[in-house]
Structure formats: structure tokens, C-alpha cells
Task: structure prediction
Amino acid sequence: MTGGREASSGYTPEQEAEEARLWSLVQELSIEVSTNPYWATLPKDDALVKARMQLKQHPKAQPDAAGGALAA
Result:
């Protein structure tokens, strides 16, 4: 038992495939955002860091409180 619950039998093959698909999508989209030509238009100073930090703090970029999923 863990945390008062019976141990899970783990993911089904379908769930494992979906998790792998979603992680791949996260990686692909992360690369897409970080290499977007928009970033080249910003001066290479603190404004760039500030812009990226604001993007990271955007409400839709934050995990929801329940399950760690990103807000829709």
C-alpha cells in the first residue's frame, strides 16, 4: 500500500502509448516555441529573459492543481 491506497497495476499498453505520444508532443512543441524566429526579434538583454519568464508564468502554461496537466 502506498499513501493509503493499493499499489496500481501500472499503465495499460494504450495508456503507455498515449503517455509516450504526449511527451513527444511536449518535446516537439517546446522546440517549436524555443526556436521560433520571434525570439531573434528581441534585443539580447534582460528583456529577452523577462519575456521568456512571462511566457512560462502564463496561466495556460501552469499545471492544474489536480493532476499536473497543463491548463486548457
Summary: The radius of gyration is 18 Å. The chain is about 45% helix and 0% strand.
